[in-house]
DNA sequence: GTCGTCAATGTAAGCGCTTACATTTGCTTT
DNA sequence: AAAGCAAATGTAAGCGCTTACATTGACGAC
């Protein structure tokens, strides 16, 4: 029943005939210890199968080598690739990743953040900027480095503290909407994400609206929908009933676009002949569905990598890392038709 | 620069006019404390914005409220849903999840496991059974509860210690292969996963082979390939060149099947008219690709949920939880043709 | 040979909690 | 009202590390 007592640093010290301080140094700043001693200690470590207790270490050293990440969801692939790269990079620096998912709920996110901070994370990865200002204050007070990924604005709202690694959602969406219009479409609707507590969804809607307005098109239908294929199908069906069928449907992300394509096809519409549908994100399914989606490519890997680097630099007090704006671009595939007018 | 001293338990105790022990009890076993005191303490906690230091707690209490999970990959959707459910369930019990991914590499997995144990995880989620027996000994010695998910055998090889929550990969694969044969196919090949260090991939190959043999079919081509769409495309192309085109291709998972479908179509083959292709897992892309895949449905959500429950029960020393074998079933969609003979 | 210097190592005080054990408090009993 | 007892609370010893500071010793300068 009772656990066999695990070897502790003291045991190693005794066996190697040195003090605990020296063993600790061997493990953490090996260059401060002369080679002969280091070898002796290493031998003792191997012999005992010693493994440090990270909780004790974190407590004493006030750093945990853990990075926390709160992402909206792990279920669809939107954040998967970035998270994978993020964690690989951290792993290289011997940091572990504590992930939590908020299911796009603000209160859940706050709870998760607090819990991660209680765990003593050395840094935090957050998605998007929109959250209770109290959270930023809290983080600032605790001096926890954090990076906001996926969004980029000229200034981080409600805080001058964290860093951003993202892209301009509004501009990116604007570019694809303009592209659609350039292809001759005049009746274009939008299947948007839920904009509450989600600045990216909001920015994409703004990008859409601004271009519609610039081009003098009439007020288009915009429906908000959770990022879920089935819900997107239903939303699209409902939209058609209420507002009719557009020649082009702009979707706030690929998941929504896939839902729309599937539903359109189920209703006997040909994509893109009868209706053009565009996505956003360029996740895997975008190129798998038939027709493959014309969409906005988001540099998932780079987002993950640079977020990690920025965070690491901050943690190590490296010279100031600036916010980073990444570029997106349109990927033309086959879900967008040219309309002859 | 220096962090403002965070309130500690002692500060709360002082403000509330009680001992630290009482505060600790309020936080951990509130029913052992009389209501009046509890309220007073709560007020002090709120007033100071106190948050417990989990590292100190873990050190003192020898439990961390952290569960570790080492999964082969976060990138494709194979484990995403299960992991999401797993973490949601843990979250209900105030456990956090420390995830690591091994990229299907045995040594990386071992390193991750050791790191998680160093962090003092209260339990571990592992995928599949195949790993160095030393790891099982190690876990057993440390008395760390763990569950093996995704595989199910009558007995957990190399250990009588952990629990299994999985399904019979061999049987599941056998059933779909038999189904394909029942549809009239005689020349059926397999695009398999890499079987080294992956008992699930191996079992699926065995399931395939056994049915081929039972039905007296000639020796089929079997090619192993990483779970990656592009690699699958290349593998399929190579297979065709070397072994010709089967009437049906059994794939070890949906990712491989999608790659095969895409490549087949790129080569001018119609699926399923010219070649039938089946998947395994029933992840999202299986129903999105055209034609949607006939595949083996794996209960991802249940795997995650029951893994969590089993682990929690073990951690709480609840009455013995038995290993759990879940059922899979074939989902018929449109990638499998009936061959008239 | 003595002293100063600096690198290597040792000593010991915590880090912020939990919990076994001791003590006090508030009831019920008689 | 005293005794007895359980429930509530307090006391204080760690949990296994890190690190500021103290000590040691080797070596070169004089």
**What oligomeric assembly is this protein in?**
homodimer
Give me the side-by-side strand order of the main sheet of chain A: 2-1-3-4-5-11
How many alpha or pi helices of chain A? Answer: 13
Poorly predicted spans of chain A: none
Largest interface, C-beta within 8 A:
A-B, 48 and 48 residues
Radius of gyration of chain A: 25 Å
Residues in β-strands, percent of chain A? 5-15%
Helical proportion of chain A?
A: 40-55%
**What structural class do helix, strand and pairing data of chain A support?**
alpha/beta
* Separation, N- and C-terminal Cα atoms of chain A: 80 Å
User: SSE order of chain A in H/E notation?
Assistant: HHHHEHEHEHEEHEHEHEHEHEHEE
What's the layout of helices and strands?
The structure is a homodimer of 341-residue chains.
Chain A: H1 9-16, H2 20-28, H3 35-48, H4 54-61, E1 66-71, H5 80-92, E2 96-101, H6 106-118, E3 123-127, H7 133-141, E4 146-149, E5 163-166, H8 169-182, E6 188-192, H9 199-214, E7 222-224, H10 229-243, E8 248-251, H11 254-266, E9 276-278, H12 284-288, E10 295-297, H13 300-315, E11 324-325, E12 329-331
Helix pairs in contact in A: 1-2, 1-3, 5-13, 8-9, 10-11
The structure holds a DNA duplex (30 and 30 nucleotides).
Entry summary:
Chain A has 341 residues and is of the alpha/beta class.
């Amino acid at each position: 029943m009772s656990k066999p007592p695990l070897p502790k640093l003291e045991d190693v010290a005794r066996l190697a005939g040195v003090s605990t301080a020296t063993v600790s140094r061997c493990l953490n700043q090996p260059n401060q210890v002369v080679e002969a001693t280091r070898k002796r200690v290493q031998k003792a470590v191997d012999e005992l199968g010693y493994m440090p207790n990270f909780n004790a270490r974190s407590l004493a050293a006030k750093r945990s080598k853990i990075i926390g990440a709160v992402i909206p969801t792990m279920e669809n692939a939107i954040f998967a690739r970035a998270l994978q790269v993020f964690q690989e990079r951290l792993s290289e620096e011997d940091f572990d990743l504590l992930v939590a998912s908020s299911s796009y709920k603000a209160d859940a996110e706050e709870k998760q953040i607090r819990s991660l901070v209680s765990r003593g994370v050395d840094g935090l990865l957050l998605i998007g900027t929109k959250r209770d200002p109290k959270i930023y204050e809290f983080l600032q007070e605790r001096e926890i480095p954090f990076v906001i990924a996926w969004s980029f604005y000229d200034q981080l709202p409600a805080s001058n503290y964290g860093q951003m690694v993202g892209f301009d959602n509004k501009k990116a969406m604007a570019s694809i909407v303009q592209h659609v219009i350039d292809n001759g479409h005049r009746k274009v609707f939008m299947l948007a994400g839920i904009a509450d507590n989600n600045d990216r969804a909001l920015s994409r809607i703004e990008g859409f609206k601004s271009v519609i307005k610039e081009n003098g098109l009439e007020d288009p239908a915009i429906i908000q929908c959770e990022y879920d294929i089935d819900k997107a199908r239903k939303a699209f069906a409902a939209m058609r009933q209420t507002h009719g069928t557009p020649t082009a449907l702009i979707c706030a992300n690929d998941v929504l676009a896939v839902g729309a394509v599937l539903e359109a096809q189920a209703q006997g519409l040909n994509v893109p002949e009868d209706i053009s549908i565009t996505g956003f994100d360029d996740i895997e399914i975008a190129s798998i569905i038939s027709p493959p989606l014309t969409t906005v490519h988001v540099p998932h890997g780079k987002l993950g990598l640079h977020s990690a680097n920025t965070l690491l630099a901050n943690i190590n007090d490296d010279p100031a890392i600036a916010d980073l704006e990444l570029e997106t671009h349109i990927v033309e595939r086959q879900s967008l038709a040219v309309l002859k007018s």
